[in-house]
């Protein structure tokens, strides 16, 4: 079973920041938080990952709380092309640790 | 651009047929995975492989088998297709050395069994 909880859907106006929350209260010390997204009719796409520090790349920022029980993915200036299902996943460091998807958050960006 | 390529975008097969879904990656990744995706159930792991000729069962292996004879190719086999195997099938790969950097997925094969 997925070890994360996400809201099923969210809306965001184009050009505004989209903040997608994720709860992972049972995360263990050696587990990373990963975010993927899936645009309609495509395979999931890796966005970002983090352990305990905040992370930023060209796609998004990831804010992880100090107790690591929750995180927020931030798309700073959402566009219509960011409309997708966003998955928050907790996964260990080892190669044998599997990527287990939940049902994600469906983000709708509107004009 | 690195890629995971699935041989067919859409397939229609008859019940009882043997079906092969092919996946090829050009990133020299050690790990390869097969998922299926169904509405309301999300992505579920069927089989995965960490090396040539190695395979491990995922969460829903029943009715499926896999083959990995070459590093770049991972095939999913439906021995006798059934209607409940109608689904979107997604292949993915990842690097052993750079496991932190996530999986790369193909675009998927939408299989309909009639």
Annotation keywords:
heterodimer; A: 111 residues; mainly beta; four-stranded antiparallel beta sheet; 0% helix; 47% strand; B: 114 residues; seven-stranded mixed beta sheet; 53% strand
Helices and strands in order:
The complex is a heterodimer of chains A (111) and B (114).
Chain A: E1 9-13, E2 18-23, E3 31-38, E4 45-50, E5 55-56, E6 61-64, E7 70-75, E8 84-92, E9 105-110
Chain B: E1 4-6, E2 10-13, E3 19-25, E4 31-38, E5 42-49, E6 56-57, E7 64-70, E8 73-78, E9 87-94, E10 104-105, E11 109-113
Parallel strand pairs in B: 2-11
Antiparallel strand pairs in B: 1-3, 3-8, 4-5, 4-9, 5-6, 7-8, 9-10, 9-11
What does this structure look like?
The complex is a heterodimer of chains A (111) and B (114). Chain A has strands at 9-13, 18-23, 31-38, 45-50, 55-56, 61-64, 70-75, 84-92, 105-110. Chain A has 111 residues and is mainly β. In chain A, the strands form 2 sheets. Chain A has a 5-stranded mixed beta sheet with strand order 1-9-8-3-4, with no helix packed on it. Chain A has a 4-stranded antiparallel beta sheet with strand order 2-7-6-5, with no helix packed on it. The termini of chain A are far apart. In chain B, the strands form 2 sheets. In chain B, strands 2, 4, 5, 6, 9, 10 and 11 form a 7-stranded mixed beta sheet that branches. Helix content of chain B is 0%, strand content 53%.
